[in-house]
Amino acid sequence: MTQKWKKIILWSFLAVAVFFAVDAGRYFFYPDVAGLQKNRPGKTAFMEYREEIWKEKGINKKISVSWVPLSGVSPYVMKAVIIAEDDKFWSHEGFDFDAMQKALEKDIQKKKFKAGGSTISQQLAKNLYLTPAKNPVRKIKEAILTWRIERQLSKRRILELYLNVAEWGDGLFGVGTAARRYYGKSAAGLGPREAAQLAAALPNPRRFRPDGSSRYAANRAERIYQIMVRRGIVIEEYDEVLKDEGGEEEKAPEPASPEPETSVAGEPAQTEQPAPAVLP
Predict the structure, then answer these.
(1) Terminal Cα distance for the chain, rounded
(2) How far apart are CA 201 and CA 196, in angstroms?
(3) CA separation (Å) from 53 to 41, 56, 65, 98, 251?
(4) What was the pLDDT predicted at 134?
(5) Beta strand 172-173 pairing with 167-169
(6) pTM of the model
């Protein structure tokens, strides 16, 4: 190979490296994450991605989305989602390095880049601004956005945003939409079983619908529910009394914050035959 061609190849690699550095680096300044402190997000990147997929397939369908303030969401849902998706949510700064290490070890064993172990903050960054693509460059962008989100938004606001932009079915976005579609009630009226079912669907809500059609999702929902019972979030005898009386389920009192016994967060999505998982 001549010296001329060596220089051409070297400069080509440098040009590509600079392009990706600039492409990822712009996320240190764009988009306006701080604006989410008071403003609701518009149409998210995931919503646009879903519409583009429908358009390519010739499907005439519209996104279903609604907004519910955190005060209007059942505490059972908040607890179940955190148990399922990110059990260290309140204590980490955007990244759960233990979960990421375990996910990386699984990727190495399977010789695939699936990059699981995402926190709620990481999933929020991806849902708002990125696509489902699984590649190192997108993960770098996600990490930058997660870092900004954790520093500019409170944990409560992060959770509120996530619950309202997460996909809970094919084109169904927001816990309010999911509550109406699957249970015919408001997000505030969801009980512990329903909360566990919704949380169990999050790794891949288009495949693991909260309607009991997936055995994997049903088993996962039961594990989430039992963790809620062990932590005192759900008092089974109290719920049974309310059901027997035909009463409406009430919100359980906020429990103390014991050390987590176990968690299903970071669990890779599976089908009846394991398959890759949406939307940590």
Answers:
(1) 46
(2) 9
(3) 21, 5, 17, 34, 39
(4) 78
(5) antiparallel
(6) 0.77
Q: Give the residue among 29, 19, 21, 99 at the shortest CA–CA distance from 260.
A: 99
Q: Which two tokens stand for residue 60?
A: 């005439």
Render pLDDT for 178-195 as a digit per residue (tens, 0 to 9): 999 999 999 999 999 999
Per-residue confidence band for 278, with pLDDT thresholds at 50, 70 and 90: very low
Q: Could you tell me which of 148, 8, 163 has the C-alpha nearest to residue 72? A: 163
Q: Is the peptide bond before 31 cis (omega within 30 degrees of 0)?
A: yes
- Under 8 Å between Cβ of 278 and 123: no
Count of CB atoms situated within 10 Å of the CB of 98: 12
Bridge partner list, 167:
173
d(C-alpha 178, C-alpha 165), whole Å:
11
Summarize pLDDT for 106-156 with one digit per residue, the tens.
655 655 545 456 899 999 999 999 988 778 888 899 999 999 999 999 999
Tokens linked to 154: 């409170």
List the structure tokens of 254. 């906020």
Outline where 62-135 has alpha helix (H). Answer: 75-85, 97-110, 120-129
Q: Is 64 helix (H, G, I), strand (E, B) or coil?
A: strand
